[in-house]
Structure formats: C-alpha cells, structure tokens
Amino acid sequence: MTAKAAYSTPMLHVASIETSIALYELMGFATIDTDRGTPLGSTRLHCDDMPSGMTNFRDPDGYIIEIAHWSATQQQAWEKCLATKP
Predict the structure, then answer these.
(1) Fewest Cβ atoms nearer than 10 Å: which of 13, 23, 58, 70?
(2) Are 61 and 37 in contact, with CB atoms under 8 Å apart?
(3) DSSP string covering 48-64, please?
(4) Would the pLDDT of 1 be above 70?
(5) What is the pLDDT of residues 59-78, one digit of tens each?
(6) What is the mean pLDDT of residues 17-28?
(7) Which helix (H) or strand (E) holds 68?
C-alpha cells in the first residue's frame, strides 16, 4: 500500500502558544481555531492581507519560520470537509 498525504499543517514548537498568538496578532493574524486545551496545545491562525502561498523569515533565535496561507475559498472547502466528518 502506498501512503499519500492530502493535507499538511506546519507546526511550530513554542514555549507558550498564547504568547505566540499575541505576537502573530501584531502581524495581522487572527485565531481561527484551537484545541481548546488549558494551556493550548495547538492553534490555527489566518491573515486576510496575505495572498495564498508561503513566506519565510528568520526569527531572532536563528530559526527559519515558514508561513503558509490559503485563500477564503480553500478555507471554506476545509470547513465543509470538517462538517461531513463524524
């Protein structure tokens, strides 16, 4: 059997997701959803002003950060897919 990846969500390991959300909000991102944990274990962010695609930058610790963004149409398709799952 051959495995096939259909979707991929990049993950950044951070000391505090809540603190990281605050940083990304300063860059124009908004929280779409979280795992609702206390403390948070995962989240997805969205930025309306960024076109679909990817951008990379190096953070102060030297890590290369890649931000991938999808369009509203892609988001709506994802939400429709989630709604059909049990």
Answers:
(1) 13
(2) no
(3) TTSPSEEEEEE-TTS-E
(4) no
(5) 766 778 887 777 778 888 88
(6) 83
(7) strand 64-69
HSE, CB side, 13 Å, CA atoms: give it for residue 25: 10
With contact defined as beta carbons under 8 Å apart, do 45 and 24 qualify? Answer: yes
Domains of the chain, by residue range, sit at 17-84
Task: Name the pTM for this structure.
Answer: 0.51
Token pair listed for 27: 């860059």
Return the closest-CA partner of residue 48 out of 66, 80, 21, 25. Answer: 25
Q: CB under 8 Å to 67, separation ≥6 — which residues?
A: 50, 54, 55, 56, 57
Query: In terms of Cα–Cα distance, which of 38, 41, 46 is closest to 71?
Result: 46
> Is the Cβ–Cβ distance between 28 and 47 less than 8 Å?
yes
